[in-house]
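Entry 14. Ran structure prediction on the chain below.
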Amino acid sequence: MSATQILILIAAYFGVLLLISYFTGKNDNNDDFFKAGKQSPWYLVAFGMVGASLSGVTFISVPGWIEGSQFSYFQVVLGYMVGYFVVAFVLLPIYYKLNVTSIYEYLLQRFGVVSHKTGAFFFFVSRVIGAAFRLFLVAIVLQQFVFNAWNVPFEITVVISILLIWIYTNKGGIKTIVWTDTLQTLFMILAVILSIYFINESLGWSFSEFLASSELKGYSQVFVTDSILEKSHFIKSFIGGMFITICMTGLDQDMMQKNLTCKSLKDAQKNMVSFSIVLVIVTFLFMLLGALLYIYANRNNIAIPLMDGNPRTDLLFPEIALNGGLSITLAITFMLGLIAAAYSSADSALTSLTTSFCVDFLDIEKKPKEHQKSVRKKAHIGMSILLVIVIIIFKYVLTSNVIDSLLTVAGYTYGPLLGLFAFGIFTKYQVKDKYVWIVAVCSAIIISIIGSIPPEQLGGYVLGYELLPINGLLTFIGLILIRRK
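Output, structure tokens:
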């Protein structure tokens, strides 16, 4: 598939998104931008959240990770499912009872202004990094397979990507996102299913023959139970996955903002439960696709693509889909799936960052009515520029697999949120609000130091996703120390 063909496909795709934006953004008011008027059908929200949760990271990075990790990531995914039930039946009732726009308003009502700002700040850092990770991944694919052919700098590729998102979210905000995410999830699921079909066909297999093949068995180890010292041991992965979901979904304005557009708590809970089941199934399909990609690459002597002289497993899927000698249908399917997966998470991230910044930091609801819309639009532009800067920085500092990096960083930035919300929900203590930010920052610093300890100094124990609950526990203990007597 040529660079020109890919560009035409991208233009057509964004034409559809702009059409959706035109119809959903007609009102162009803050209520629709932040809450979609609380009229979103729960089944649309659930289906759209699948794409937003998986994103371009899962679409490319999970398949590329299979050779190194096999199916051990599925242990984390099983933990996710338990976490989603915690979100549905512990956190959502609190948010609906308080009728919040930003979920960090809970911290304002529970502890005070400093706690509110601290929680919002850690979300802000977490989401900027997470969204930048995801957009970085799609940007390097577009760069490698489209814009390098025309000598367009990476920086321009990033600016174009963010500009397109800004255009179609500028008016409708979360109301637009609910509908565009539904379309994008459909494209992404079709892409993985059709990719599995076409690659199996080229190998002369049916799907059942692929599942029974000896080659698949070489990649398909799920449970790691030999030694608790290993990073991917089942207990560590499962517990880590559970807390990752609680934090990166239940304590994350991006994911919760969609849930809060549902008409009622019951609808939001139905959305969360059904979404969790679909997500587990789709993620497993991505892992099957990853094994299939490596089998195909080995049979056809396709090497891991290089970027800046370094092998990038994240680029294996696009390399095979676009340059692997398969059908043009697979190439088109891949590009639609990639664009859909990447932008379904990026557009909602931009919207949630704008919402949090306006509500949590600018106190937009206290400003004169005639100025609120202008404040929101300026914040939207500011968040777009910030994402551009961070993505460009990643190009020069990021070296490891993107999904592994994303989950590692989550352990540092979401931990204080976990501790703050847990303390608020499970204790009746009040705290000395002005010291909360010190506790949160110290916890993050301590956990980053712990995370950098070499395994040799820990008797061979490799730290992994358990850093997130440990970070939350450190914050919880710190809040006990500053509680009011």
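The chain has 20 helices and two strands. Will compare against last week's run tomorrow.
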